Structures are given as structure tokens and as C-alpha cells.
From TrEMBL:
Residues 219-289 form the GHMP kinase C-terminal domain. This is GHMP kinase C-terminal domain-containing protein. The keyword Calcium does not apply. InterPro entries: GHMP_kinase_C_dom, RFAP_synthase, Ribosomal_Su5_D2-typ_SF. GO terms for molecular function: transferase activity. It comes from Aquisphaera giovannonii. It comes from the Bacteria. Keywords: Transferase.
């Protein structure tokens, strides 16, 4: 391929399952890859390393980091030939859609393709990008799509990325509502690390309940295509996770408006409403036709004074990143 192009899905993170100094595994989690909110990039050989389009400066930093990590791992990408990367489509960063992870993984996949090297598996992707230190949802979702459950990171110092515990195809006829209310960006980088260091450990009983909700609630509901049961389990999980994060984000959700929107989503008949990662993006699920989706979208925009682009509908992405060129 002279100019390969890579498209990734977006990522909704439903919640982490456990953390604290005494936890045998850190974090763990469950999330869903969706058609909206992803990244599309293209690349080609060039006289020097360069990038264009939205997030171009971020791409240049990723290219440098991959080469540095490749040198540490004695990987061939350490001496990769220069390339030019163009970002063709990109959602905003730090709104809960996993853009940073998908961008890093897409750039890595592009570099491998241009060098004629085989695609990397999850552990190698983590080594070469530095991703997967906490959540493995975006890492495994990039490869596989669908509903992802990761098993958390082992406590030993040399532990790899969180392993993939379950991957389930998600019903593509379930409508997924995304809402991005105004507000600050979700925590990331040093601010996120600081927030986790200050969070109290999650009690074992809470981790037990969250794991039951995933194993005996979310996953079987998706397999049985039971939207009501899925929504009930996801809402319960979101409430538990939100309470655990309340000391850091000031409440169950990132803002009072987000909480009001989630309550309204339940009132109008959508299920499983919640906040992805640190927010501010919210989600909810239903099985709706186009007319009902338009009606609900218009009502929410008017009722909460949201911009036209703040409310959208999407579907699950049951495939990982795609490459063409």
C-alpha cells in the first residue's frame, strides 16, 4: 500500500471494577466500541517525520514515543523510515470516547504497515505505545470491536496490559444515544494519575458486586439480546462506579447537568444511561426507529439547551480498526 488508511471505532467505558494497594488486580473494566467517535488517518513515506490535520501535533508526539519505546524493546520500528501522517477525521480529545488510545494505536498500525511488518498483538501494542496501563478496553477494542471485558492489570512490576476476559458481539439494532453536554474536559495525563492516587480503595464488596453485574448481568443480557436486562445491569453498575468516583469528580457524574440529563433519559424510556469514563459524554440505549430518534434528539437539545452537534445516535462497532489503501 502506497498510502494506507486506517479507521478506528470509538470507545465507551462503562466502568472500572476494582483498585487499591491491596487489590490482587488493578482496575479491570467493561466497555463498548461504537461507530462514532473514532479516528481516521492515512500515511505515506516522506523525507521527514510530519503530520497534518486535526491533532497533528499529537501525532508527531506519538511518532516520537513509538520510536523511543521501540528502541527500548529492540523492535524494528526504532529505525523506521520517516513518514507523513494525515488525520482525516478525529473526535475531540478527553471527552470520554478514548480518542487518545485509538489515535496512538492507529499510528502504530500505520507505521507497521509502511515498514512491511505484521500487525502487533495487544501486548506488543501496549509496549510500543505505552497504552493499557489502566484500562484495556480501548486496546482490545481496537483489535476486535464489540463489548469488551478486561481482567485488570496484575500487581507485579513487570505485568503486561490487562488481558481480554470476554468479547461479545453487540446487537447492532440497538440504538445508542451520545450526548456531550458543555463542561470541562475529562481528566487525563498527570491530572488523571493524581486523581487515581487520591481515590480511596474500592471495597472488596463493591468489586464483588460490580463483577457480578458484568458476569451475570451485562454479558448474558447482550448474548440473549435482552435490552431491558442489559439496561438494568448497566444502570446499577454506573451508580456503583459513580459513587466510587464522587470524591474526585464532585458527584456521581461530572456535572449537575449530566445527572439531570441521565435522569431524563430514563424518564423518556431509554435504558442503561450513564457517563463514559470521566465524561462529559453520556450514553443511553434503546431500540428505536428514525422518527423516534429524531424526536428524542430534538427534545433533548431544546430541553437542555444543547448545540446541534452535542446530541447524536450511533450503533455498536463489532469489528476493530480497519485498514485500506
Amino acid at each position: 500500500m502506497n498510502r494506507p488508511e486506517i479507521r478506528t471505532p470509538g470507545r465507551l467505558h462503562f466502568g472500572l471494577l476494582g483498585w487499591g494497594p491491596d487489590a490482587p488486580r488493578q482496575f479491570g473494566g467493561v466497555g463498548l466500541m461504537v461507530e462514532s467517535g473514532g479516528i481516521r488517518i492515512a500515511g505515506e513515506r516522506a523525507p521527514e517525520w510530519s503530520a497534518a490535520g486535526p491533532l497533528a501535533s499529537r501525532v508527531l508526539a506519538i511518532l516520537r514515543e513509538i520510536r523511543q519505546l521501540a528502541a527500548i524493546a529492540s523492535h524494528p520500528l526504532a529505525s523506521a523510515a520517516p513518514c507523513h501522517v494525515e488525520v482525516l477525521e478525529a473526535s475531540p480529545e478527553h471527552v470520554g470516547l478514548g480518542v487518545g488510545t485509538q489515535l496512538s494505536l492507529a499510528v502504530l498500525r500505520l507505521m507497521l504497515e509502511l515498514e512491511g511488518l505484521p500487525p502487533a498483538d495487544a501486548p506488543e501494542m501496549a509496549r510500543l505505545t505505552g497504552r493499557g496501563r489502566r484500562s484495556g478496553i480501548g486496546l482490545h477494542g481496537f483489535l476486535h470491536g464489540g463489548l469488551i471485558v478486561d481482567g485488570g492489570r496484575a500487581s507485579r512490576a513487570d505485568a503486561g496490559p490487562p488481558p481480554l476476559v470476554a468479547r461479545v458481539a453487540f446487537p447492532e439494532d440497538w440504538s445508542i444515544l451520545l450526548i456531550r453536554p458543555p463542561g470541562p474536559q475529562g481528566r487525563h495525563g498527570a491530572e488523571e494519575r493524581s486523581a487515581f492516587s487520591e481515590l480511596p480503595p474500592l471495597p472488596y464488596r463493591t468489586t464483588d458486586r460490580l463483577c457480578r453485574l458484568v458476569l451475570l448481568g451485562l454479558v448474558p443480557a447482550v448474548l440473549e439480546r435482552d435490552l431491558a436486562a442489559f439496561g438494568e445491569a448497566l444502570s446499577d453498575l454506573q451508580r456503583e462506579v459513580g459513587r466510587a468516583f464522587a470524591p474526585s469528580q464532585g458527584g456521581t457524574y461530572a456535572s449537575p447537568q449530566a445527572e439531570a440529563i441521565v435522569e431524563e433519559l430514563g424518564r423518556i424510556g431509554l435504558v442503561g444511561a450513564g457517563q463514559t469514563s470521566w465524561g462529559p459524554t453520556l450514553y443511553a440505549f434503546g431500540r428505536l426507529g428514525e422518527r423516534d430518534r429524531e424526536r428524542i434528539g430534538s427534545s433533548l437539545r431544546l430541553g437542555f439547551q444543547l448545540s446541534p452537534s452535542a446530541v447524536s445516535w450511533t450503533t455498536a462497532a463489532n469489528r476493530g480498526a480497519a485498514i485500506a489503501g
